[in-house]
Amino acid sequence: MYPLLLVRYGEISLKGRNRKSFEDLLMRNIKTTLRGTPYGKIRKTFGRIYIETNGSWEEIARRLQQHVFGIVSISPVLRRELELGSIQEGARLILEGLPGQTFKVETRRPNKKFPLTTPEINNALGGFILRSFPHLSVDVHNPDITLHVEIRQEGAFLYSQVIPCLGGLPAGSSGKGILLLSGGIDSPVAGYLSMKRGVAVEGLHFYSYPFTTERSKEKVIELGRLLSPYNAHGSFKLWICHFTEIQKALQTISYPELSITLMRRFMLRIGTELANREKAYALITGDSLGQVASQTMESIYTINSVTNIPIYRPLIGMDKQEIIDISQKIETYETSILPYDDCCTVFVPKNPATRPTIEQALEAEGELDVAGLVEEALSKTHCIDASTSQEII
Ligand code: ATP
Ligand code: MG
């Protein structure tokens, strides 16, 4: 019934010379997302995108709604001839299946050549609808149904449904960031929220085989795969760093209560090196203030001090339930709660320090060859495409 999808996108970020690259990227991302669906031509006019469909528009709309950042809303649109009878017939087709008791017609007429004025069109259509659907009455303030009519050069466009979408900025429009991706609930959500603001995210996972199992790695690859459709290019590069030597070294220090603090400092050092190599502008973590000992303000301060690169913590102000709600929405939750060990859960000391200072951390690190351990771990880091599980490097 609906041959066209009208796609609306954010306008605030469309000022100036960013506009064209924003739109081109959004078009590219839409095409990537719609691969394998029955879509036809995609056109961009006057700040909107129109996608032709062969009628089965629901699957196309669902994918765009679920996965494409930068889209504000979508409407399935009926295109009719620029002729009143044809427009009325279109109105009838749209209203036929809809629930509701009241309606209004809202017309826009950018094509001034059309013989009827906007109020004339509203009246003619309103009268037609009242006659065709005796159960409907007009309510201009709070109608159940709003029938939108746009009189354009290319024809009359009619729609009533406005499907809200994800908003945000097109995936990849901002630059690259490295997400420290564990197997937990939080870090995939942090990745998703960064992608929402246009970050092209690559994952970095610290893996401590044989202390953690192959299956825990598979779980993280699966999380990467689940994040792929939101990400730039519809894929997800995942760096796997062998962390075992560092974990072993951390078991030998004379300050076991600092082992988590030091472990996190190693993670940030390695992440920073990788970010520099990959030309990324930020690290991203799933920290939420006060959630665990390593996420107190003092801990974050001491852990953060090993690097100058910006660290994005999109969950910092969120409660656990809010994070869980998002992870359920993006469907990473079920994978995140699978009970496989993470390197942080295996090595948790009995009483982790909640107020570690930089001086204490430096003193404990004095017992280790920090630079050597970082270099060794980096040399053993390889990369896979989580969307296909193919080895890249
Ligand atoms: P998550 O649910 O993301 O695992 P968490 O609440 O369990 O988070 P922590 O284990 O303290 O919190 O980890 C804090 C952050 O450190 C994680 O969100 C993640 O960004 C990073 N992190 C922890 N473990 C790893 C790991 N094995 N590999 C990569 N990053 C990790
Ligand atoms: Mg964790």
How would you portray this structure in words?
With 393 residues, the protein is of the alpha/beta class. It has two domains: 4-164, VC0802-like (2-Layer Sandwich); 176-392, 3-Layer(aba) Sandwich (Rossmann fold), CATH 3.40.50.620. The protein is built from 14 helices and 16 strands. The protein has helices at residues 18-34, 57-67, 84-96, 118-132, 186-196, 214-227, 244-250, 259-277, 297-304, 320-329, 333-336, 343-346, 358-365, 370-379, and strands at residues 4-9, 39-45, 48-53, 71-80, 102-108, 137-138, 145-152, 155-159, 163-164, 175-180, 199-207, 237-242, 282-284, 311-312, 382-385, 390-391. Strands 1, 2, 3, 4, 5, 6, 7, 8 and 9 form a nine-stranded mixed sheet that branches. Strands 14-13-10-11-12-15-16 form a seven-stranded mixed sheet, with helices on both faces. Helix 8 crosses helix 14. The two termini are 48 Å apart. The model has no long low-confidence stretch (mean pLDDT 94). The structure holds adenosine-5'-triphosphate and magnesium ion. Adenosine-5'-triphosphate (ATP) binds at residues 180-182, 184-187, 204-206, 267, 285-287, 291-292, 294-295, 342-344.
